[in-house]
Fold this protein.
Amino acid sequence: MRQVALLVAALCLIPACTQPAAPPAAARPSLEPVALPDLSNAAESVQSQVRARYAGLEAAIAKADTPSSALADAYGEMGKLFIATEYYDAAEACLENAAVLAPSEMRWPYYLGHVFRLKNDPMKAASAFERAIAIKGDEVPALVWLAEMHLTLNEPQAAEAPLGKARALEPNAGAVLYGLGRVALAKQNYAEAVSDLERALTAAPQATRIHYPLAMAYRGLGKKDQADAHLRLRGNGELTPPDPLMGELADLLQNASAFEARGSKALEDKQWSEAVAQLSKAIALAPNNASTHLNLGTAYYMQGDADRAMGQYREAIRLSPSFTRAHFVLGLLLETRGDDRGAIDEFTATIGGDPKNLDARFSLANALRRNGRVEESLTQYDEILRADPSVSQASFGSAMGLVRLGRYREARDRLEAGVKAFPDQLGFAHALARVLAAAPDDRVRDGRRAAAIASALMKAQRSPSLTETMAMTQAELGRFDEAIRWQREAIDLARQAGRTDLVPRLRDTAQLYEAHRPCRTPWADDDPVHHPRPQ
Amino acid sequence: MRRLLAGLLAIVASSCSGSQPTESRPSSTDSRAGDAEWFVERAAQSGLDFVHVNGMSGHFYLPEIMAPGVALFDYDNDGDLDVFLVQSGMLGSEAKDATPGLKSKTRPTSKLFRNDLTINADGSRTLHFTDVTDASGIVTTGYGMGVAAGDFNNDGWIDLYLTKFDAPNQLLRNNGNGTFTDVAHATGVDERSWSVSAAFVDIDRDGWLDLYVGNYLRYELARSGPCFGPSGAPGYCTPDAYPALPARLYHNERNGTFRDVSAASHIAREFGPALGVSTADFNGDGWIDIYVANDGKENQLWINRHDGTFENVALAAGVALPISGKPEGSMGVDAADFDDDGDEDLVMTELAAEGSNLYVNDGTGVFTDMSAPSTVGPTSLAFTGFGTGWIDFDNDGRLDLMAVNGTVQIIEAQRQAHDPHPLHQKKLLLRNAGNGRFEDVTARAGAAFALSEVGRGVAFGDVDNDGDVDVLIGNNNGPVRLLINQASQGHHWLGVRVIGPPKGGPYVDRRGGRLQAAQTRDMLGARVEIVRKGKPSLWRRSRSDGSYASANDPRVLVGLGESSEPVTVRVRWPDGKTETWTDQTVDRYVTLKQGEGK
């Protein structure tokens, strides 16, 4: 009896009495060895994170009684971290092991599919996604990605089945409809493609990427107008299904570069709040990174917080005084706030460090001209045109500067050249007509030519400004009755356009014509043409 | 406000999330008869002693990974193709020589090699190249990118245009006596920018070659450095971190100078970071158009409006973007009639994970993206392709595709193996199956195709004049490769050189400004129709541009397969006139001169 009691007591002490026994190490399935890759090019914090997790994996492996599920998790989490850090070979080995140890866990073959996708092996990726779907058939992201791999492999027929299943689960999911639309497009079933892609767009209007294949589908149907309309709307807004599993990867790395990368992605995706959040974290870890401050400033600005944006731009400049991009963007911001003096300083700093920055030089030129520093603006316009004669705005700005300085002959010559170089930019012809009609320099005026140019322009448009120019040409030719008629039309057009602010000046000019006097002021000093606004 | 928004949104520090490419499996279709390697590598053996130096210094400067181009052209008019190899050299103040075994410690330079081909009595070839750089007087300056070839002054001698990073481009005028003179400044084409591909092209059909220069990015070493991936690993930035530069179009003034017509022609109105350029008549109206492959931005198809201006119709034509609508890498490009329907189709190499793009022309200049159905896209997914070209490598009458590859982001497996230049990949050879699809035959092409290198420029031409296309490859920070074709044995062919006295009148002699009669030159842009009995015509085009930053043999080489019957050759000249030559026997080169046909 005592022996039986002892035996029973001993039996109850064995853990297997109450739990399934962990397979001993020797009984584990055959697994891939996973060596720690060379981490030397990764940030220190990332190295630490990877080493720590790897140490945990090693410990789990070494412990003979680690349950398969726990070991699978250890491999799987290691694999996820390797994906996040782009060590894909190591990730592959870990996830294969995790899948072997936990064959009923969908997420391990799912992540493996993404590893192969990222390694540009769509065939293996498709196989892995199929494995995931075999475990969990209603996983929509897996179905969508499987279809995506088939499309990549030019197998649109094979893509139909998983997308059909996905549609049955989520009939209005934009990503599913997008996939179906692209399948139809690949099969040249244009009507079906249009139907699915239009519905995808309705479901996800921010996914401007859809417009291009939709345009191609319309083109396939011979509907050019619709095709053109969608081409005009094309953009880079992506469309992927909501994917919590891949979302876990996005938050794995906690280093400054990772936050910066996530913040940059959010900026690209126009997710301003997310960009602010991620970039702020990046700065918390790496406060001396001027680029990150610049990007955070952008995110704040797009969020509508110009003050914070300015703070970040100034910080970027404080950290890196020669950071010309920061100077330029700060200048643009100051310009929009009406601080031209500050803007000029920043644009000047920009081109001081980056003389080839024609955008900054153009902004500087306009700001100078707007503030009456016309001679200086001409220097900048000339510099732009020397570097790139195709910058028509610089040519026009220069001509207007010359007008402002009373150098009408040069202005006329510059406008003539502009008409030749940019024949479809009618602003040059219009300005030339004005100068020829109303320049105070007798040697410059040519009423006939001015009238011919203005008449030709009138065929295409009829604006208060152009009508006013027409009046000037008629006055120059001594046809004051005609001039008065045109001037009155200009006044009417201004009223119709809601520009009652122009009316008093137009009336004053009309009175000149009534007194049989021509106009000798092509543009008033306060005319917007002399005050180029920030664009 | 709009400019502010555009400026803000454009300023996003790039992270370099590189993909990990894997090589595609070779096709498992039946192997072709014969055990001989289709291509054998003969650069060193033939005397092409050249190693490209990219000057990498650990700063991950983007120019490091973008060069070099190569050129095949007959500089001495002796009937065989000579070689020009672009050198880059040191970059930045801390550049170190990362090329092991580089013999000379002096500044590495671009090289000109003269082809001293000997055709032996038994028909075999002895290929030998002699470095004649010093004798040629060529002194290249700056960090070399690419090369274009064309006779810009109609004196009968092919000139070279060299593109650079941050140094003036050079126009090397061939003096006709084995020497060259840099006349870039004198002719007005010495822009200092970042230029990659260029093309000599007669845009106004006046018989004089004009010049298109594709510019890439506004990039300054002092303000540049690595970008960092999510793990903090440094790498090369992507091009969207920098503003693009406008292209240049120079009109040949017929007096030894060029005039910048970039603005007047409208070419400068829209631009992206241009890498590849191909000129051809895409809409069949008899005027040459210009296709520009832009890196990461929409590509451009500049249709010639016949009045000195161009219009970009790429979007409407379906060649701005692939079917996905996502702008892709777009490095190398080539145009040819691969489906024998008489129009020019386009192929373009892309980044890994994007797959090369094949755009099929409907004859009117409207294209359909057939990258996937043709298998060109799926087959090339693992590769980042650069130089590429339509070649009939086996002379079966169908144009095949070849591409050289090499990534722009570090391949982690190679870095893990401590590879000093972890960007290398194998080449790709796709055979045209004749049904709109292509077969990956890389595995059967020979050991040369198993070389994993950082391929960039590639030029195609018959270096040994044996009637098949050979391949000259420029590897980034690596040795030049010359692949001699052995694949076409048994198939017939016809080589056609189309020349003309350009109708543009006399040129200005370099000595003292005297006028000379315009000499015959290769009529770049001429279309050649091979009319065969009972079979569809084959269309080819005389061109030196296309591929990536490189210059090709302008001769037209047409594979004829099993047929040895004489053919009729019809040439549509760049000025629109057409002439015919009948009963042309095959398996030889013929020179057809404008004005001498029917």
Remarks:
- The radius of gyration of chain A is 35 Å.
- Residues 1-23 of chain A have pLDDT under 50 and may be disordered.
